[in-house]
Amino acid sequence: MSTTIHAPNKVASTSGKPTRRLANRTRTKSSARSNETPVDQNSDKQPANIQQHEANTDAMDSMDDAQKKPTIRDVARLAGVSYGTVSRYLNGNTHVSQDAAERIAAAITKSQYTPNNAARSLAQRRTLTVALIIQVESNETIAQASMSRAMAGANQVLGDAGYQMVTLIANSEDSTRRIAQLVQSDFSDGYLLFSLSEDSMLANTFASVKRPVVLSEVRERENLPFPAVDFTNTEGQRDITRYLLDQGRTKLVYVCGPGYSPSSNNRFDGFKAAMGDRFNERHVYYADDWEGTSGEMAVVEFQPMLDELDGFVCANDSIALGVINQLNRFGYRVPDDIAVTGFDDSPIALLANPKLTTVRQDSQLHGETMSRLLLSMLQGDIVEPHYVQLLPTTIAERQSA
Amino acid sequence: MSTTIHAPNKVASTSGKPTRRLANRTRTKSSARSNETPVDQNSDKQPANIQQHEANTDAMDSMDDAQKKPTIRDVARLAGVSYGTVSRYLNGNTHVSQDAAERIAAAITKSQYTPNNAARSLAQRRTLTVALIIQVESNETIAQASMSRAMAGANQVLGDAGYQMVTLIANSEDSTRRIAQLVQSDFSDGYLLFSLSEDSMLANTFASVKRPVVLSEVRERENLPFPAVDFTNTEGQRDITRYLLDQGRTKLVYVCGPGYSPSSNNRFDGFKAAMGDRFNERHVYYADDWEGTSGEMAVVEFQPMLDELDGFVCANDSIALGVINQLNRFGYRVPDDIAVTGFDDSPIALLANPKLTTVRQDSQLHGETMSRLLLSMLQGDIVEPHYVQLLPTTIAERQSA
DNA sequence: CTGTTAGCGCATTCAA
DNA sequence: TTGAATGCGCTAACAG
C-alpha cells in the first residue's frame, strides 16, 4: 500500500525570537483558556503528536506575541507626533509636513507597525471588501471552469478598484445560515451573489440588506430582487440548435441540466424556441446535475432509438462529453452518425474526442461586468432591481457537430 | 448573431420603503461624494442607462439607510436595560434574568437589530474567520476539482467549529500584495495557504505573521516555515509506476507538471524512484502547466518513437486525457498499445475514453485535515514549523492501464 | 500643518 | 444579576 503516513517530529518551543518590547501598561488578560475556544469546537479528532499544552506561561507568551502589535499610538510616540498626524499620514492624502512624514515612516518600519483591519472598518464604517457568495447544491459546481473564471474576473476588477474580493461558500444549511448572519452584520460593503439555485434560502436574507447586491443569473425579470448580469443563455442554445437544424438534423434529443438552475431552464427554453413545432417532449432527458455521467445515462436511456436520431443538444460541456463517450462505446460515430453540442466552452471541450462544438460564453467577462455594476452602486449610483445586463454568447464550431 | 443585449429599464427611486426611525442625533456627514469612492476607482466603463446621480437628498437618504442600523444601545433603550446587559445576552451565556432576556429578545426583533462585525472583531480581537488563500500562477488551477473539494472540506470543518472560511485569490502581483497587507492587519484568525507555487511571494509576508498558518504542499521538510498537510505524492506516483512495470511495461515516458509546483516535483521523484536505473532523462516531457493540451504536445513530441513505448505516466489527469486523445488520433490503442496513467482521480478521469487509471487522493480530506490542524493551533496548541502530515494515495484501477 | 477630542459598536471588567 | 465605565485601534472633525 502506498499509505505512508509520516510520524510528525516532536514539538519544539514556539519560536526562537526574543519577546517583543513595547510592553508598557500591563494588560488585563484573565480568561486563561476558557473562552479562547469558539463555539462548538469539537476537538476530539486531534492529530497526534501535537503538544496539548495547558494554561501556563508559554500560553501567555504566545498570546502576547499575537497581541502586542504596535498601534498607531506607539508609532506616534516613536516619531514624536500626535497619533492624529500618523493617521493622516497613513491615509495618504492630507497635509503632513515633510519632516513629520519622514519621522513617521521611520517609526513605522522600526516598530513594524501594521494597521488593524477591524478598527479601520469600524471607524470608517466600510470594509473595503466585496463578498462573492457561491450558493451551490453540489460542490462540483465550484469546480466548473466558468465559476473560477468569473471569480478571476471579479477579483481583478474589484482589486483594481481597491476592494478585496472574499469568496464565501454556501453549500449547506449551516453555512448558508452563517453567511446570512455575516451579511446582516455588514461583513462586506457589497455582494456578488452566485446563487446557482432558484429557491435561494439566501434571497430572503438579502431582502433586507442595506448594501448593494448583484446577481449572476436571472430567470424571470419581473420579480428580480436585485440587478443582475447574465448570459444570453436562451439565445445561445436557440442558435446552436438552429445550427443543427440548418444541417438538416431535425431528430434532436435535448439533455437538460438540473431543474433548480435558472441557466439550465433558460437554455432549455432556447432549444424549445428553435425547435418550435418539432419539439418533442419525449426527446428530452432531465438530468439532476451538470455531470458527465448524466450524459452517459441519457444515451443509455435513448439507446433503443439511437438509429433514428440526428443529434444531442446538451445543457453543458460535461454532459456533452458523457454523451460523446457513451455514443462511442455504442459504436456510433460523432458527428457522422449523431452530432453533439455542449454549452460553456470550458477547457474540457478540447479534451473531447472529437472536439466539442459548443456555445461559448466569456465567464471572466461575467465576473468583470458584475463587479463593475456593483462598483457603480458602491459609488452611490442607484440601479433599479429589475436592471438586467445580458452578455453575448457565440457558437464555437469544432468537430462534434 | 446571438448577441442580444437587453437595454436596461430606466432607473427608479431606491425603494418604496419609508425612511427609518431611530434618527435622534443628527450626524455629521459632510464629504458628500468626494471620498465615497475608494482608491483608484476607474469609473470610465460604466454600464449605460444607470442614473449617475449627483450629491442630492436622494444620496443622503440611501446613505442613511445604510447607516442607521440599530445598535446594541437602541436595543437596550427599547428593552429598558443597560447595553451591557444586552451584550451579555447576545453572547449567550452569562447571567441575565429571564425577564430581561425576554424584553431584550423582543427589542431585538422589533428593532431588527443585527450586530456589527467590525466592532465585535475589534473588541474581541478576533474575527472568527479563517482565510483560505489560493496562490496560483494560472487561473485554471482554481478550477481543478481537487481545489474545490479541499475548499468544501475546509469550509465544513471550519464552519462546524464556528469559523467562517473566506477564500482569497492571489493571482497577480497586485492581489498578492493586497492580501499580504490584509494578513498583516489581522484580517483573519488563521490561514490555510494553498501556495501552489514554490517561490511564494507570500512566504516572506507570512514569515512575520502572528497567527497560525497551515500549508498545503511540502517539498523540503527541513526549511518548512509552517506546518503542512500534503499527500504522499511521491509514493503514489512511485506505486503506479511500479504497477506498470509489473505488467512488463518498462519503456515509459513521464509527462511532468509545471516546475514551480511542489506536487509536480514530488510526483516526478516518485516516478524516478520506481524506475531506478531504467530512468531515462530523454523520456521526460516537461510541461509548463497542468492542462490537457500539454499532454497532447507531449505525444506529438514523442511521435517518432511511439512504437517503441509501453506507456505514459502523467503528472495529473488533465494531462493524461490529452495524452489519450492524441494517442487515439495517431491510431494507437490505449491501453493495448500504450498504457496511460493520471494523478488526482478527478471527475474527468471518468470522461476519458478509455476510463483513466490514476492515483486517487482524497482532496476533501486534505481540506479537512488542514483545518483541524489549524483549529488546534487556534486553540493554543503549539505545532512546530516542520510538522508534516501526509495523507494516503491509492491506485484507482480502470481501463487505461 | 498639527494636536486634541470625540466617537465607531461592542466586550468586559468592576462595583453595586 | 445588572449598570457604569473603560478600552479595542483607528478616523475625522475641530481648533489652533
TrEMBL record, chains A, B:
Residues 71-107 form the HTH cro/C1-type domain. Residues 1-48 are annotated as: Disordered. Residues 1-17, 31-48 have a biased composition (Polar residues). Keywords: DNA-binding, Transcription, Transcription regulation. SUPFAM superfamilies: lambda repressor-like DNA-binding domains (SSF47413), Periplasmic binding protein-like I (SSF53822). Coiled coil: none annotated. Residues 70-124 form the HTH lacI-type domain. Residues 18-30 have a biased composition (Basic residues). Pfam families: LacI, Peripla_BP_3. PROSITE patterns: HTH_CROC1, HTH_LACI_1, HTH_LACI_2. InterPro entries: Cro/C1-type_HTH, HTH_LacI, LacI/GalR-like_sensor, Lambda_DNA-bd_dom_sf, Peripla_BP_I. This is Transcriptional regulator.
